[in-house]
Structures are given as structure tokens and as C-alpha cells.
Amino acid sequence: MKTPQLPENEQQRLASLHESGLLDSGTHERFDRLTRLAKRMFDLPIALISLVDSNMLHFKSCDGMVNAQVLRDISFCGHAILSAQPLVVQDAQQDERFFDNPLVVGPPHIRFYAGYPLQLPGGVIVGSFCLIAPEPREFTADDVAILKDFAAIVEDEFAALSAATTDELTGLFNRRGFNNLGKYAITSARRRAEPLTLAWLDLDKFKYINDTFGHEEGDNALRAMANLLRDSFREADLLIRYGGDEFAILFSDTDERGAWVAMQHLAEQAEVFNLTSQKPWQLNFSWGVSEYDHDSNPDMSSWITAADEKMYAMKEKNEQKKCE
């Protein structure tokens, strides 16, 4: 088996992928329609729309195969993103790159693969539109042209989603919205000589909720957390789902002490929710707050890191208490 190389622009590629928000926006019916149509048109059992992260594949749509985690190192898509040209493997058992690949010798027993690279608006390749079958087959130039058209439609959808600043699941601002509005908030606070504080929040045992009760209940927990944020804070505060189970609150005209008091109020509201909710899970979270230092003028990344480190300190403290 040949492990796929890293693209020369790998750091830029990953930064663009994460900045786009595509990894955080889940699956979409618009993509599922395309993979269903591709399966029928090509008469193949599997069609995928994949994103290639640093170590794993993420599927925006996965029709015909269990949407399980796939390591990048054994993926066909890891090879497909190395070129702007399509990757066509008519028989994986006869290809020295793939003949002993775990995805060939084991489920889903790939023999045929065709992947067309998918680009973001800036031209960075982040994934592929893939067709897969458990038996060898021909793939003509006309087939490649049709697959290219499918990829172009997906790229248009990527552009629309990347431009969006709202998280579809929770209705809060997403990572892109935070990056855009956060810079404005800093400029505004500096001009008015007002304090500005960032709170970073991470749900505790969110993986347990997903693994035990299913991803639908995991989504319900994220929505419940978003509603709790809306009910607990001012309209002037920016509420963000940064990604996964990470949330952020940007408190305007509020110092670090005031933000800490506000977060304690949020924790109290979560306790009320847990006592009154009929859900099989509870909302528990750790947080950290960091006031923006107008004198040192840190960039957004450094500011986020400062709040994130304080959040993890609380999470570790909570874990230690449970062990005592």
C-alpha cells in the first residue's frame, strides 16, 4: 500500500478548509441529492463527497456506505487531492498503490474508484466527489466529464456555505462569523476605550452523549446549549458555535470579572435545565474567560488560545474532583 503524500500547500489547504466552516456544518440534503443522482446515473453502489482533514476524512454526503471514520493514510481521497485532475482506478487489485489497502482487502472491498477533486473558491483542493464499486469497471472520457459537472455543482455549494456566517444547526454565528465580527468588536472596543472579554465553553462528555444516545440527541444537546446561551446573555453579546461542541461568547463592554459572573449565571441556568429536562442526558460544560489586552494587542488566535487554556484548566479541575 502506498500512503498518500502531503500536498505542497498542506498548511494553507488545512487552514482554508477549517476557515471555510465546512467541517462544522454537518451533512446537507443538497449534497445527498447529488450523491443519490450520481449513483443512479453511473449505476454504482457508492457515491461520496469527502473532505480531507489532517488525519481523517469527513463526509458531507455518504450514500451506499456506512458513514464511518476513514483514516487519511489509507484513503483513496488522500491521493485524489494531490492533483486537479481526476483520479480513476479501474481495478484497485491491479494497482500497486492500492492492491493491499485495507479498504480493498476488507470492507467496503473497493475495486473501482473515481474521484474528482473539489476546490474552495480560492482554488485550494479540500476533498473529492467519489464513485466506488466492489468490482472493476471502465470509466470513459464522457464519464469523467459528467463527474466533473457533479464536482462543479458541489463547489458552488461549498462557496455558498463558506460565505455563510451562521451555523445551520444552532442558528448562532459560526467560526467565519466570529472571525469577521470579532475583529470589528476589537476595533470598536479600542476606539471607545471599553473592555472586551471572550468566554470559551466546551461541553463535558459530549462524545458520551453521541456514543450512548446517538448523533440526533447530540444535535439536540447542541441546540439546547445554544438556546441556553440566548436566554442567559444580552443581545449585544456575540454568541458563537465555533465548531463541534465548542462555543464562545464575546462580552462587549465587560471586563473579565464581569464575564466570570455572567458565566456562573449560565452554569446556574444549566443546572435548572438539567433538573427540569426530560432528556436522557445533561448539559455540563467547562469554561474560561480572557479579557482583551488593548496594550499588547494580541491577534485573534492568541486571544482564543488564552481563553481555551483557562477552559481546559477548569475541565481538568472538574475531572480531578470526580476522581476524589
What does this protein look like?
- The chain has 324 residues and is α+β, with helices and mostly antiparallel strands.
- It has 2 domains: 10-163, Beta-Lactamase (2-Layer Sandwich), CATH 3.30.450; 175-323, Reverse transcriptase/Diguanylate cyclase domain (Alpha-Beta Plaits, 2-Layer Sandwich).
- The chain contains 10 helices and 10 strands.
- The protein has helices at 10-20, 29-42, 77-80, 102-105, 141-163, 175-192, 206-213, 215-232, 256-276, 300-323, and strands at residues 46-52, 56-63, 70-71, 87-89, 112-119, 125-133, 196-203, 238-243, 246-252, 285-291.
- Strands 3-2-1-6-5-4 form a 6-stranded antiparallel beta sheet.
- Strand 8 (238-243) and strand 9 form a beta hairpin.
- Helix 2 packs antiparallel against helix 5 (141-163), helix 7 (206-213) packs across helix 8 (215-232) and helix 8 (215-232) crosses helix 9.
- It is elongated.
Summary, kept brief:
The protein has 324 residues and is an alpha+beta fold.
* Percentage of residues assigned to helices: 40-55%
Mean pLDDT: 92
Number of strands: 10
Give the N-to-C terminal Cα separation: 48 Å
Percentage of β-strand residues: 15-25%
Which CATH-level-2 architecture of the largest domain?
Answer: 2-Layer Sandwich
CATH class of the largest domain: Alpha Beta
Q: Specify the number of helices.
A: 10
Over the alpha carbons, how many angstroms does the gyration radius reach? Answer: 22 Å
Question: What oligomeric state do the depicted chains represent?
Answer: single chain
Unreliable residue stretches: none
